[in-house]
């Protein structure tokens, strides 16, 4: 009735894979559970991988900064890989017998968007994000199955079998994916932050002293460091791209590209620094030092003063010309922490030592 063909299936399965990935990336922002080994330091938001807590935006659940770099890496894959697969699917569709029925494809695409929208609404409304990690929220196996059966399998079978056999194999393969893969996403090896929840280690009552981050000085550092970032991976690709544009279209175009790239990196570094450290205050209790993020409304780490082996202010020659003052180094037996752009750093050192 709808005049299906192998070419139509190729296009629908390709579109479905992209929609499924996009839905998973949206869901990943809200995933509450934290998987092991998620840090990708060079990726956007990679420095947020250890951040606790989330930020509520409108009617949506909290967005967790620690999930951003995972979602961004998925966006990179989607932007780079999905169009390539689409080109293969288009070539394969053109090579199949018969024309692609536009009406049939349109009806199927509407169904794909509708089903994924319903799934996303269900994910938020029924709080399914509470049992997901950022990676398990992305239907990885489902997308893999769509590519395997929907693109590669169809194209290969079309070369070796009659169209009716191809259609039957594709429909059967897709049905198996829907039945046995979509409902069993990996939990990605969930790990706890600590044997004892961090919140339970935060003392009750008011702290003896509170030391806040000099947010203005911290954020003023980011633009100063942008030229250095552009000389280090992965940002080096930006000046290289600007050079290629300059060779192809002239010096003006190259400089404009470099300026846009530098502005984008500057904005990214400012936002990154603000989310990572701009809202952290250090609360000193008689038996605990607590780093508390007021933006995310969650403690980030705690140490007992008795475990602090050394606390000092350090200031390199480069830091002397940067806003924000000296850096405070807090050393324990198993970890060193550096507190940047801290207000009243000398008073913090005296309080901890006292």
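^ structure tokens above, recovered residues below v
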């Amino acid at each position: 009735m709808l005049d299906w063909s192998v070419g139509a299936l190729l296009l629908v399965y390709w579109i479905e894979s992209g929609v499924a990935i996009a839905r998973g990336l949206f869901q990943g922002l809200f995933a509450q559970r934290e998987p092991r080994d998620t840090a990708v330091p060079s990726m956007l938001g990679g420095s947020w991988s250890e951040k606790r807590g989330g930020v509520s935006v409108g009617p949506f659940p909290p967005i967790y900064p620690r999930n951003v770099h995972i979602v961004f890496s998925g966006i990179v894959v989607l932007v780079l890989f999905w169009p390539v697969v689409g080109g293969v699917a288009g070539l394969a569709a053109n090579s199949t017998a018969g024309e692609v029925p536009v009406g049939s494809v349109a009806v199927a695409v509407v169904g794909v968007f509708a089903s994924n929208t319903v799934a996303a609404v269900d994910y938020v409304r029924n709080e399914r994000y509470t049992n997901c990690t950022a990676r398990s929220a992305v239907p990885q196996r489902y997308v893999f199955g769509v590519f395997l059966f929907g693109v590669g399998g169809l194209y290969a079978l079309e070369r070796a079998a009659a169209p009716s056999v191809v259609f039957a194999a594709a429909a059967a393969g897709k049905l198996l994916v829907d039945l046995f893969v979509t409902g069993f996403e990996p939990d990605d090896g969930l790990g706890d932050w600590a044997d004892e929840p961090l919140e339970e280690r935060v003392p009750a009552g008011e702290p003896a002293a509170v030391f806040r981050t000099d947010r203005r000085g911290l954020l003023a550092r980011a633009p100063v460091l942008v030229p250095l970032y552009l000389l280090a991976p992965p940002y080096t690709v930006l000046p290289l791209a600007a050079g290629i544009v300059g060779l192809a279209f002239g010096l003006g175009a190259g400089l404009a590209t470099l300026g846009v790239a530098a502005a984008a990196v500057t904005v990214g570094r400012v936002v990154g620094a603000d989310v990572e450290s701009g809202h952290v205050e250090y609360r000193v209790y008689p038996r605990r030092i607590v780093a508390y993020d007021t933006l995310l409304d969650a403690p980030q780490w705690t140490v007992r003063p008795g475990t602090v082996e050394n606390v000092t202010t350090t200031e390199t020659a480069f830091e002397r010309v940067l806003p924000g003052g000296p850096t405070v180094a807090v050393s324990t037996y198993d970890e060193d922490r550096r507190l940047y752009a801290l207000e009243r750093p000398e008073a913090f050192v005296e309080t901890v030592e006292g």
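The longest strand covers residues 308-314.
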